[in-house]
Amino acid sequence: MLELKGLKLSYGNTPVLNGVDLSVRRGDVVSIIGPSGTGKTTLLKCINYLVKPTSGTITFDQLGMDYQRADKTTIQAIRLRTAMVFQQFNVFKNMTVIQNVMDPLVVVQQKPMDEAREIALRELERVGLSEKRDSYPSQLSGGQLQRTGIARALAVRPDVMLFDEPTSSLDPELVNEVLKVIRDVTSSGITSLLVTHEMQFAKSISNRIVFMDQGVVAADGSPTEIFDTPTNPRLTQFLRSELAFH
Ligand SMILES: Nc1ncnc2c1ncn2[C@@H]1O[C@H](COP(=O)(O)OP(=O)(O)OP(=O)(O)O)[C@@H](O)[C@H]1O
Ligand SMILES: [Mg+2]
User: Fold this and answer.
1) Which of 78, 176, 188, 197 is in the most buried spot, having the most CB atoms within 10 Å?
2) Domain boundary assignment for the chain
3) Ligand nearest to the CA of residue 40, numbered in listed order
4) Pocket of ligand 1, candidates 10, 18, 40: which has the most ligand atoms within 8 Å of its Cβ, to mutate?
């Protein structure tokens, strides 16, 4: 459903993506792993159109979207179809939890208030935050903030969920509640791309693992192929260092 070909991107003179090829099928849960600074966040941002690739193509086939020639309407449609959950929570501080979830439904999708509220309540239930619906972000824990962000992203019913290290800024005791929500989301069949350093988690929820190194996809395979029988020396080295670190 999502096809990336020869994707390149430079920030000024610094090349970050050096020709990424990636093909994602509907229902895939793809975890993206790799060393820091290798372009993982940048890749997700390209898919969400937060940054525009220097060259290469992204096609979102069933919608026939051409990223290179996208106008404003197309860009907005791409953003709605590919909801992104950031490491730093994507919530507005001046809105309550439920207002945060309703916001894209009302502002972007222009749904009536009643319907938006109904959808928001359902998504909050899904992430276990029904009771916190009238709280403000300043009254929430990091895990609750991140779950609000996930509910907000899910509310628009995207085709693809993009998670960028959703647990890396959380205190260790809050990580599991967010991983549980992500596990629920991915097992519901929604196509997901997840950048993570949680190797065990990636292994348990993904049907594919992509190893990025120096701006390219250096290895792409099943969790078993990537974690148990890696053939790429850089991957082996990376896995060893992750294991030592965690
Ligand atoms: N807006 C920007 N302007 C200039 N350089 C940037 C910008 N964003 C990222 N970079 C650089 O691009 C490279 C890739 O960054 P990116 O955030 O995609 O890496 P990453 O793989 O997500 O790393 P990490 O695991 O640390 O999150 C880094 O060297 C980074 O410093
Ligand atoms: Mg990153």
Assistant:
1) 78
2) 2-92+164-245
3) 1
4) 40
Per-residue pLDDT tens listing for the chain (246 residues): 899 999 999 999 999 999 999 999 999 999 999 999 999 999 999 999 899 898 888 888 766 666 767 788 888 888 888 999 998 878 999 999 999 999 999 998 899 999 999 999 999 999 999 999 999 999 999 999 999 999 999 999 999 999 999 998 888 888 999 999 999 999 999 999 999 999 999 999 999 999 999 999 999 999 999 999 999 999 999 999 987 766
Bridge-based pairing state of the strands 55-60 and 2-11: antiparallel
Q: How far apart are CA 56 and CA 20, in angstroms?
A: 8
**Is 94 a pocket residue for ligand 1 (Cβ < 6 Å)?**
no
Smallest CA separation from ligand 1 atom 27, residue = 36
Residue 40 CB–ligand 1 contact under 6 Å: yes
Q: Does ligand 1 come within 6 angstroms of the Cβ of 196? A: no
Q: How many Å apart are CA 75 and CA 146, to the nearest integer?
A: 25
2-92+164-245 domain in CATH 2.30.29.30? no
Nearest residue by C-alpha to atom 4 in ligand 1: 11
Provide the 10 A C-beta neighbour count for residue 15: 15
Contact between 104 and 80 under an 8 Å Cβ cutoff? The reply is yes
Residue-wise burial string across 165-186, b where 16 or more C-beta atoms lie within 10 A, e elsewhere: bbbeebeeebbebbbebbeebb
Instruction: State if residue 2 touches ligand 1 by the CB under 6 angstroms criterion.
Output: no
- Angle formed by the axes of helices 113-126 and 142-155, nearest 10°: 130
